[in-house]
Amino acid sequence: MRHVNGIRAVLPALLALTSLGFGLSPAAAVPDTAPAAAAARPAPAADPGLVDALRRDLGLTPDQARTRLDQEATAARLLPRVRDLAGSAYGGAWFDPARGRLVVGLTDSAHAAAVRATGAATAPVARTEAALDGAKAAVDTVSRSRPAPAAVTGWRVDPRRNAVVVTVAAGSRTDGRVKAFLDAAAAAGPVAVEETAEQAPRTLSAGVVGGDPYYINGNTRCSIGFAVQGGFVSAGHCGRAGSSVVGWDGSAMGSFVDSSFPGNDYSYIRIGNGWWTVPVVLGWGTVSDVLVRGSWQAPVGSSVCRSGSTTHWHCGTVLGLNETVNYSQGAVYQLTRTSVCAEPGDSGGSFVTGDQAQGVTSGGWGNCSSGGQTWFQPVNEILSRYGLTLVTA
Questions:
Q1: Which residue out of 47, 212, 265, 355 is catalytically annotated?
Q2: Residue boundaries of the structural domains of the chain
Q3: CATH of domain 129-196
Q4: Hey, what CATH topology would domain 202-386 get?
Q5: Rounded CA gap, 240 and 261, in Å?
Q6: What is the SS3 assignment for 263?
Q7: pLDDT higher than threshold 80 for residue 54
Q8: Spatial distance between the Cα atoms of 376 and 210, rounded to a whole number of angstroms
Q9: 314 is catalytic
Q10: C-beta separation of 155 from 119 below 8 A
Q11: How far is CA 199 from CA 25, 140, 267, 373, in A?
């Protein structure tokens, strides 16, 4: 908050306010995203509110939720190691809730024993992740010269299907423009087509509503993503470089240093005027505020939760990585698809798995009454793009 009093010097009070974009000064927080440091630290006990949120949104019992959180944390920490062990045979990986284990796709069984020795399971696949990423990049190239029609909602690498999955509106496959795009995509590599009844994806910014986290140029509301040294990150479609930002109380926070949309959907906002940062994601009373301890990427199949200024706290699962989403404003690349709902005003908000930052809300379809899906821009890409350091506990 811009003005600090004695109560706000107490850490619990600061943590309760942190998603509004202020709290401890940057010098008080030391980043810790190194795998060795994260692996050495014992996992904190699961927050009762988070367990309850997973019970509500994923239909788990409390014991199942706690077990799953532990299993997912193990899987995320194994991911870099098994990728190295698999080498050129690596065909992607995903978390299997039924087995509670990371599953690693391999094109060569000679690597299976070493991978299984880590505790991960293996599955034979025909194509490497590198080949699938190359095919997906080729489809992206097709889309730049031949923009996808609106009935093509997106495309992604799916490690479980070992293919590039293109999603299209139900009943649209025979449409001439859709068919032409699918033919061009199929020529680029291994493609599977998935018909879906989902609505067209949209971004999730909103007009001014009092009492919400931050406003851009006085007339658009978005949600803070994660605190970084010097400011915070959010969605790119929320504002442009130089756009001024004010907080929930109407006081000046700072301005957008840079943003990218479409193509990407990320931004960096530098703060000042007495606003501080803390390593916390607001739980909105549904869960205790979440301390951010790093940014390990959660594999497909993991649970993930989102915090936003409109619909507050909701959970779901990671459905896909490296997806191109065909918004009306243009395609956005390398997003992560989730089953979490969202609504206008949630744009830019935080996605977390356990205590690990995942990304900032980009867009979606549906709502939190009837259901829907959302995509997020991975936070590690944003940090790398701007040379930022995540504020962590």
A1: 265
A2: 129-196, 202-386
A3: 3.30.300.50
A4: Thrombin, subunit H (2.40.10)
A5: 9
A6: strand
A7: yes
A8: 25
A9: no
A10: no
A11: 42, 21, 26, 9
Q: Which residue type sits at 110?
A: A
Structural tokens at position 298: 């959660």
Q: Is the pTM of this model over 0.85?
A: no
265 catalytically annotated:
yes
| Token pair in block for residue 226 | 């994660």
365, 261, 228, 46 alpha-carbon torsion, rounded to 10°: 20
Alpha helices in the chain (DSSP H): 11-17, 35-40, 48-58, 62-86, 112-116, 129-145, 176-188, 379-386
Q: Which pLDDT value is given to residue 3?
A: 34
Residue type at 324 in one-letter notation: T
Q: Active site residue: 234, 347, 350, 362, which one?
A: 347
- Select which of 143, 158, 237, 346 is catalytic: 237
Query: How far is the C-alpha of 328 from the C-alpha of 308, rounded, in Å?
Result: 23
Q: 151 near 174, Cβ under 8 Å? A: no
CA distance 85 to 112: 9
Phi-psi region of 116 (alpha: psi -120 to 50; beta: other; left: phi over 0): alpha
Residue type, 235: A
| 289 is an active site residue | no
Give the relative orientation of helices 48-58 and 62-86 as an angle to the nearest 10 degrees.
90
Which residue in this structure is represented by tokens 């190239």? 141
Q: What is the pLDDT of residues 267-296, one digit of tens each?
A: 999 998 888 888 989 888 888 888 899 999
Dump pLDDT digits (tens) for 120-168: 999 999 999 999 999 999 999 989 888 899 999 999 999 999 999 999 9
